[in-house]
Amino acid sequence: MEVETPAAPAAALAGDELRRFLAATISPDKASVDAAAAGLDRAAVDPRFPLAILAVAAGNGDQGVRVAAATYLKNFIRRNMEGSMSSSQLYKEFRDQLAQTLLQAEPAILRVLIEAFRQVVEKDFVKDNLWPELIPQLKLVIQSSNLISPGQHPEWNTINALKVLQSVVRPFQYFLNPKVAKEPVPQQLEQISAEILVPLQVTFHHFADKVLLSPDETKLEYEQLLLITCKCMYFTVRSYMPSRVKQILPSFCKDMYCILDSLDFNSLPEDGAMMRLKIAKRCLIIFCALVTRHRKHADDQMPHIVNCAIKISKQSINLSGLDSLPNRIFSLAFDVISRVLETGPGWRLVSPHFSSLLDSAIFPALALNEKDIAEWEEDTDEYVQKNLPSELDEISGWTEDLFTARKSAINLLGVIALSKVGPPVASAASKRKKGDKSKGKSERSSIGELLVIPFLSKFPIPSHGEDASSRALRNYFGVLMAYGGLQDFLTEKKELTVTLIRNRILPLYSMDPCCPYLISTANWVIGQLAICLPEAMNTSIYHSLMKALTMEDMEGITCYPVCASASGAIAELIENSYAPPDWLILLQAVVKRISTGDENESALLFKLLGTVVEGGQEKVLPHIPEIVSNIANALMKLLPPVPDPWPQVVEQGFTSLVAMAQAWESSAPDENRKHEKRVWHSGQSSIAQSFSLLLQRAWLVPVEHMENSCSSFPPPSCVNDASVLLEFVMRSVTCMEETSRMKVFELVPIWADTIANWDSWEEMEDQGVFNTIKEAINFHQRFDLTGFFLKILPSQSENGSQSSVIGRVSNFVTRAIAAYPSATWRACSCIHTLLHAPNFSLGTEDARKAISVSFAQAAFTHFKSISDSPAGIWKPLLLAISSCYICYPDTIEQVLNNYDGNGYTIWASALAQVSSSSFGPGLSSESEIKLAVLTLSTVIERLLVLSMGDTKVLQDCYVSLMECCIQLKGVQEDGDNDDDNDGAEDLDDDEEEEDTEDDDEDSEDDDVQEETEEEFLERYALAAAAAGESIEVVEEGDLDEETQDIELGSLDEVDIQQVVLSLMQKQPALQAQTLPDGLVEKIAETFPEYQHLCHVRRQA
């Protein structure tokens, strides 16, 4: 990899003008930035542009300009990598020049250019394997670089060269073909291992000795070399095990043991020790990978790995004075032990250390320390996230990404507790299933019973009045953390759980004063054990949690973590069907706390309120109108006075109101229960009034507030949830007087303004908007007697444009068509509603035509982008265009042909394909089939006018038309039988469920052998294949949306059979078309009145 002077033409291109453009891109002036970006885009057309801009990045000018050049190059490569950046020869020249530049680049430039190089490597070397000279040249560069061979090529920086190697090996950390069970090691990775990693191990050993033997004289570059080499090794073995790496594995591990053994946390790490800690972290990550993925190659190293990890973990007593990186190292040390313990050999290696691990490593990591207390006061959210982890719901040696020493220690404790005396025949992870009551019947005793519980019982409950400095209190904090980690173990020991709750946890709530550090952790433990709590303790447990939920700050100590953990525990209990003795008292306590607590607490309590409403169901329903009123009043006080984005507490409040609205609507009684229906309607009206007042406060901002605000209006906050509330209001209105009282005609234009230019698309966050669009059209049909929704209104958005409510909503729908698959289905469904349901008068027909054109353009554009192969998402797009076409045939035909010269026939052919009986998922609902028949009939007439009677597209349309007619008749006849079939299906489901339960019982005592590497790889491949299939389904859209009853308006009244019969009679040219014999017979059977026409077809 020889370093050359950049070619003259490239240098010529990288002149003053190119530098001037790049300098302007970092200007604070937006106009200058835009002009410079346009100039660079124009220059990028030149085939030598990549070389030119690389020359600027590698030059000697202003560093800001060079970083800008490197950044532009990185983005340029990302945009053009899959296409052709330039000619083959120029591209190879650029690729080599980029690699050479990296060897000498300064760190600021290297960081950016290495990302550009990574994209080149992934395509050319990893994916296409078209860079055979890369590894031999990189090997030469590394061997001749400044640290490894001083004096040979001082310009070749070893650190830079190793970072290039890191980029080359990085893609191999994942299986390239994960669906293949026994994928061989890629040839490229074998080459890297043989030519670079094997020789590099000698270098690694040499520099490790230097660093360890002369710590005072250590150069930062030496440690950087060790760190990058460790990263390269990790990427190499994370998934694969190259044959040559097996040979150097013992030597490489030996050097890593020495590095790890050198760590000493008895004193604070010095400033220069950060790099050493990063190396240690990477070594432990490598050990995790070896134990998890390469058991048969790592078995010989297991004793040394265990000894290293245990030695580090026993220094956890010093955690209080250490920052995040040492904490992560302790976390990894615990994780390594957990993983080893899940293996057969691991038991023999780790079990002799159980007692000392518990006493000297795990428990010190769990006990309260000074850092916890400081974090409690300075960053309560961080404290809750670190120390009261809601995600710790499965204890396993294979758990990843725990990140903190305490979480990893809890996990290790859980793995130890579940271990049986003697080597396991199955991994603990494979035996456990949360809440599985049939497990734990092995005859062997568990370490939890023999060691863990007796050890924790040694620590007494602190005496009344002890403060946070008390050793007894700090230790008991650790005991509670340990109980939380024993969730899976205690689930199998119901009697022990009852004893612990009664004697070791509930007494804490009776202390005077209560200790917030202990109470918050006790709340968390109760939440962790929610799945196995006895009903007999219901009252005591809820009484204790309610006391914690309402605990006030004391003596300068905030009780937010107490409230947070109590809220989380109550939610866990409810979600596990552990109901409170009195739902009303719980609701009142939550609502009162919301109105008096701070914003952080209120945000948590809003979440809890949603859980309570969903869990309480009919027991909570009578109280919902009053709760909604109180919550709406609280939110009105929290809303900002100007239209700025709303705070999180307001967003959580809106989410809880949505849960209450949905609960109320789902509880509507049958019409024949008149008294209950009157009561329900009264509650619905009260809720709608509260929602309306809240939305008025949120959206109808006084003009004087707008004058001094630079914010956009309406605020783009809670759009989905606010839409759901508005939908509820519109659905609740029963008379014109209510529309005025609830200010619906004032709220709807503001809402339409909000969604008109919406661009923050999220699948789960937009569904409420689509539903509200349909409800708004329904409201328009019922109460918009003056056509207000179709009138042009001034907008309060930033651009100040004028448009109607229907126009604004249509703008949202148009943009949604290509947003994401589910949005395509929903948007297309709304298109039918917007075109066929509104009361368009003669004066507003132009508006209808305009949105039809907009919809057709967007739908056809998106269809063309995905038209390479048939897909389920074709159907909604083509039917949406059909609705537009039925309204304005000539206009839409012109729109399609303007986009593509053959756009009309392309669409017609695709519609015929989707409408045919062979397409899946095809037309299914009655309304879909009706629309297809009407459209195909019109298309066939048009094709005949265009003299296309002998074309394949007309033949396909005609066949699909007749198939749709037959299908429509069948759907109409069979529609009444669905309810009967549902009952039979339910019966089948019950029987299947019983069979499954029997199977579970039969297999309860089966021995489960430890998973072999081959079994792991096969399971991994099957999971990858399943994931791929699910992704394909998601990309096509939600399965439950593939059958939709679409709005047809007056078209629904058209006599479809008469339309088709008329077409067949009026168009003699159709008689020249031949139909399949089977289809002709079906037509004759289904429509006897077509008998004479079918006969004509047979003769033809």
| Helicity level | 55-70%
Instruction: Please report the total strand number as a whole number.
Output: 2
Annotated CATH architecture of the domain at 582-702 and 712-784 and 799-816: Alpha Horseshoe
Radius of gyration: 35 Å
Distance between the termini: 75 Å
Given as residue ranges, the uncertain stretches (5+ residues, pLDDT < 50) are: 2-14, 425-442, 989-1008, 1029-1041, 1095-1100
| CATH class category label of the domain at 582-702 and 712-784 and 799-816 | Mainly Alpha
- Beta-strand content: under 5%
Folded structure, characterized:
- The protein is mainly α and 1100 residues long.
- Among the domains are: 212 residues, Leucine-rich Repeat Variant; 211 residues, no CATH class.
- It contains 52 helices and 2 strands.
- It has a two-stranded antiparallel ribbon with strand order 1-2.
- α2 packs across α5 and α30 packs parallel to α32.
- The radius of gyration is 35 Å and the shape is globular.
- The chain starts with 7 loop residues before the first helix and ends with a helix.
- GO terms for molecular function: nuclear export signal receptor activity; small GTPase binding.
- Keywords: Nucleus, Transport.
- This is Importin N-terminal domain-containing protein.
- InterPro entries: ARM-like (IPR011989), ARM-type_fold (IPR016024), Importin-beta_N (IPR001494).
